[in-house]
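*Target chain*
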Amino acid sequence: MRLHGRLKFQLALFTVIALVAVALMGLHFMKLPAMLFGVGRYTVTMQLPQTGGLYGGGNVTYRGTEVGRVETVRLTPTGVVADLSLKSGIDIPSDLEAEVHSQSAIGEQYVALLPRGGGPPLKNGDVIPLADTSVPPDINDLLAAANNGLQAIPHDNLKTVIDESYTAVGGLGPELSRIVRGTSDLAIDARANLDPLIALIDKSKPVLDSQTNTSDAIQAWAAHTAAVTSQLKTHDQAVAGVITKGGPAAEQVRQLIDRLQPTLPVLMANLVSIGQVAVTYRDDIEQLLVLLPQAVSALQAGIVANMNTKQAYRGQYLSFNLNLNLPPPCTTGFLPAQQQRVPTLEDAPDRTADGDLYCRVPADSPLNVRGARNIPCETVPGKRSPTVAMCESNEQYVPLNDGFNWKGDPNATLSGQDIPQLPPGSPPAAVPPGPAPPPIVTAQYDPNTGTYIGPDGQRHTQSDLANGAHPRSWQDLLVPPKPN
């Protein structure tokens, strides 16, 4: 028999719902983890003079609420001991009485915990002494008392009861015969399966109690199931459309993958490389993502100062203090002076020097403080090195000199090589560093009046700096200002 696609989908959907329901029933309603593995439970020992019909698997109640079950019942030289497996999270005072009761006329004994006062809560390993426990009367005594009661009934009244019973069931012989035969067959089968039947009876009480206690949840689950099925029925055409159009959509996806197949492996290989780099520089990427919003906020805040002012047309409010040649440029570690090109040349010939070119001065030198020599090693915390190879090796960064003067072999690039040595027989040449150029002094001035505070701390005024003093042109930038 060939099943339609929609029918297969519905069968699969109902199978998933059934599995979820069974898992929910076993884990939440039947509490199988607690029953089988003791999860969330602790054990308390109860001493008894006799079993009183108590059996393993019976319930334990506290104030009428089921709080555990009887784990085992075993004999001791002085009586009987029952191990109670109680639920964690329920504080039961240790000052209590434990009584064995019968749930119905056929038995179904359980333990009722009756508090008498306060006291600390029960904990794992506590013992309820014999003086605080009790068991129900013996069934033989009850039967003897019942027999004595029947004997006390007058025989005439008993005959009346029997006659009325005959009137009630008279003529129902065949029906009663079938009932008796059915009962006999049931008893024979029950006797043949006595052990499973006893286990079923012993364990049926927790199951039935769980069904009773979770009746609201079962009703809610049934209502939700009915709601889901009704929604499926209401949107049957939409579900059918998804099933019908799912095949062509999957075929289009397959065709797309086929078209991407020649380039997809290259793309995935590149993504693997990018992923490895991203993993290595994960901390840097996180720092970038943290600082980027703050940097954008700072850039946006630079425009706020000029809003609603006459200077608003100037855009972002920035102050550039130019200190030229402070510090001077770093030349150590690059091409020697004999190989350096004129700065005015605009072509870009191939580099003929071997090795990496970077500023090879001490790490704490003020020259090019953010140079390659101070790049943190991503895979070696605490180490800084200009190259990945030096990061991965035991080699440490070694500067060439203090950075103010180029030293070394004039015919080679010194980056990546050992510390250079002077040629044999040549006296060491100690070239003192040149004086650092003085910094350029700058001062902010008021564009409306042309006043500013000089290095001497005095207020000065230069009229040609004021707005509207006289027409300005680009030639004024090339002519020194007139002294006041």
